[in-house]
Amino acid sequence: MPSGDDKPMRTAVRTITDLARLAGVSPGTVSRALAGKSLVNTQTRQKIEALAREHGFRPNQMASGLRRQKTGVIGVVIPLGHDIRQQISDSFFMTLLGFLADELTTNGYDLMLRRVVPETDPDWLDRFIGSGMIDGVIVIGQSDQFDRIEEVADSYRPMVVWGNHTEGQRHCVVGTDNRLGGRLAAERLIAAGASRIAFLGDTGPIEFAARFAGAEDAARKAGIAPILPLSTHLSPDRASIEIAAHVAAHGADLEGIFAATDTLAALCLTELRKQKMAVPGDVKVVGFDDLPIARQTLPALTTVRQDIAAGAHGLVDLLLRRLAGEATESLVLPPELALRDTA
């Protein structure tokens, strides 16, 4: 039997996450507090330090390595805040991840991939960078997490984001000039004779919003009707159903469709064919990305090309420079029109 002198067992504290749970803060806050960062207020830092002493907590070897930038691992995280059913097997993600893996391996790093749903994991970024498992992080897509990324960028330097650059933002980004790309897409449709044009895709995410805005710029300049937004999810099962409904409802009134991605454009071509609408005879279609699928559609897809290989190189190059202590500017890549058979 236990004696009266027995004391309750203390909660085991082996990781930063354990200590964060005990302190009631995020792992990132613990990491910054133990590193003496001034961004953590004095009361919180003292509380965390006291709990660490009480439980004999010492950052593990990997966490120590993180501060020395020695783990040899770069985290790649995909936040799905705007469309939680989107799959990382999406052609764009797989293409970019392939190039990133090549670049990181060439530079002597391994890649750790994480898919997160911020709605159910609001501390997704703090928890990842405070895990002690990575030297730095590449975020693929801002989704609806722009403000969270901005907050982390204030205190965490080795982070680069694939996404849209906004004047005055604090996080370092690599991406295409999406607004210019949207303008190129709409200009091509207009030049091909389309004056009633729709944008196929969700206009909420930052990159898509910029593409839509660029198309609107071209429409206003040409003096044609405003671009019609047709909201569509990115998961193929839902997108197919939604595109079918859009084509049935609006297809007869449209002369051009600008799809937010090549994947959506390919699904749209399939649905137009099902509904006996000829491309480019009845409807012109332009996509965005210039993924391998763009050359394989029937007809071959006219699209806006973003240089994904150059983007991957830029992401890794800027991250390594930030790991070395350099201050870096964002990299905005110029889009190009890949002219094929759909417009």
Distance between the termini: 83 Å
Helix content: 40-55%
- The CATH homologous superfamily of the largest domain is named Response regulator
| Beta-strand residue fraction | 15-25%
Biggest sheet layout? 6 strands, parallel
Q: What structural class do you assign from the helix and strand content? A: alpha/beta
Find the count of extended strands (DSSP E, 2+ residues).
12
Q: Report the CATH architecture of the largest domain.
A: 3-Layer(aba) Sandwich
Tell me the radius of gyration: 24 Å
Please give a structural write-up.
With 343 residues, the protein is α/β, with parallel strands linked by helices. It folds into 3 domains: 44 residues, Orthogonal Bundle (434 Repressor (Amino-terminal Domain)); 132 residues, Rossmann fold (3-Layer(aba) Sandwich), CATH 3.40.50.2300; 128 residues, Response regulator (Rossmann fold, 3-Layer(aba) Sandwich), CATH 3.40.50.2300. Helix content is 41%, strand content 16%. It is built from 12 helices and 12 strands. The chain has a 6-stranded parallel sheet with strand order 2-1-3-4-5-11. The chain has a 6-stranded mixed sheet with strand order 7-6-8-9-10-12, with helices on both faces. Strand 3, helix 7 and strand 4 form a beta-alpha-beta unit. Helix 1 packs across helix 3, helix 8 crosses helix 9 and helix 10 packs across helix 11. The chain is elongated and about 75 Å long. The N terminus is likely disordered.
